[in-house]
Amino acid sequence: MTTVIKNGTIVTADLTYKADVLIDQGKITQIGIGLKGDRTVDATGCFVMPGGIDPHTHLEMPFMGTYSADDFESGTRAALAGGTTMVVDFVLPGQGQGLMDAAQMWHNKSGRANCDYSYHMAITWWGQKVWEDMELSVKAGMTSFKHFMAYKGALMVNDDELYQSFKRVGDLGGLAMVHAENGDVVAELTAKLLAEGNTGPEAHAYSRPPQVEGEATNRAIMIADMAGVPLYVVHTSCEDAHEAIRRARMQGKRVWGEPLIQHLTLDDSEYQNPDWDHAARRVMSPPFRNKLHQDSLWAGLQSGSLSVVATDHCAFTTEQKRYGVGNFAKIPNGTGGLEDRMPMLWTHGVGMGRLTMNEFVAVTSTNIAKILNCYPQKGAVLVGADADLVVWDPEKSKTIGAASQQSAIDYNVFEGKVVKGLPRYTLSRGVVSVDDGEIKTREGHGKFIARDPRPAVNRALSAWKDLTAPRPVARSGIPATGV
Ligand code: DUC
Ligand code: ZN
Ligand code: ZN
Ligand code: ZN
């Protein structure tokens, strides 16, 4: 059975034009005028765009003494409801656990997914077993490796481990990723704040100022440069980190930054709310920042120094957040956003004149598909691409609220925000999962997307400066100066 999306305007990262899209067996088979199919999806007045890709989710993840509350079923249902057709989740090996063992645990959970998904592998400890498993991970299509520079005593890796792992990732043609916060300083500030009696959720933000993120981002970039690996910085939340990324890119380094929709649209005044629950529900790392940092992130998306908008969807219920009553360091870190990323970015980006529609597609889908090497299977409206599409109605609006959301938690950090621009239809490999606004997801429909390593030409960060080459020696035996 074929499906045709008719009467819409196709919007890609490059082009805006009127055409119909024909879908057969989950793939786009034709783009043109006057196409016919067995089923018609009416896109009159709508934009037909590549479905969103959220490259940063934590579904059913063991973390801070509990599990994040959205699993692959509710998480991907929320994704589709908001126009996102693929998520990339983080496999998080336990201490001493092999990477492929952990991947198997994730496979056991992800069988319930409603849309396609891929995995990043987290490097949560370092040893021979991890080094060996990294090659198996790449062969199995998990080619991106995330490192935590924070969460001391738990997930954090030190600089020697970071360098060794980055080098290995580079040799395997993979992509290095970092959660960039200086975990040692965060631990110091946390202990000091608690000792002084600052136990409330607002102190979470004081324990993780922009400087800890700026320092770690800069350090990760320098270590990646020395290791010869491209670097993706997750949840870039502040100017301090953005500045380091901007500078690296100006120097010709392959570095990308990923602001979150939360950091773009919510600020640190949320932590001053006298309601403990309100503030604790917004505890995530990095924390929300002030409006100057928000301006920096928007400018980065506009100028291209920041490349991708994600969510870091890691949702916890109010009950789970209350583990941290009396000690902010025990509040499970994380917020939701999967369902709201696209409508919020459209409203605050396209709707407010900050982004073009083509830029919207680039930062919600196409750029990350290219960075993660799954373009044009994903992130494209092209013949041969997967029919992961959203039919976007720019006139449809709603007020965001927990009462009507797909996520399993009991609140929404965007509660009360009005969005204009929502999916009329969302298609996951041709399966209509949002049907004229109605949720019709299919549990188990989602498939794992394996990704090849990056082509060799993409591996080097600073191709012009080979740090491992022997230095030239002058005839006198005195090393020549300069490189
Ligand atoms: N930050 C969060 O807020 N949650 C999950 C992990 C992370 O780095
Ligand atoms: Zn993180
Ligand atoms: Zn509130
Ligand atoms: Zn995360």
Automatic annotation (TrEMBL):
GO cellular component: a single term: cytosol
Molecular function terms, GO-annotated: dihydropyrimidinase activity; metal ion binding
Keywords noted in UniProt: Hydrolase, Metal-binding, Zinc
Catalytic activity, EC: 3.5.2.2
Modified residues (N6-carboxylysine): 146
Cofactor requirement: Zn(2+)
Enzyme class: hydrolase
Oligomeric and partner information: Homotetramer.
Highest taxon of the lineage: Bacteria
Function summary: Catalyzes the hydrolysis of dihydropyrimidines and of the structurally related DL-5-mono-substituted hydantoins, to produce N-carbamoyl-D-amino acids.
Family under the similarity heading: Belongs to the metallo-dependent hydrolases superfamily. Hydantoinase/dihydropyrimidinase family.
GO biological process, one term: pyrimidine-containing compound metabolic process
Changes after translation: Carbamylation allows a single lysine to coordinate two divalent metal cations.
The UniProt record lists the keyword Nucleotide-binding: no
Matches recorded under Pfam families: Amidohydro_1 (PF01979)
Signal peptide span: none
Gene that encodes the chain: dht
Taxonomy of the source species: Bacteria, Pseudomonadati, Pseudomonadota, Alphaproteobacteria, Rhodobacterales
Name of protein: D-hydantoinase/dihydropyrimidinase
Coiled-coil region(s): none
Catalysed reactions listed for this entry: 5,6-dihydrouracil + H2O = 3-(carbamoylamino)propanoate + H(+)
Record domain Amidohydrolase-related: where: 47-419
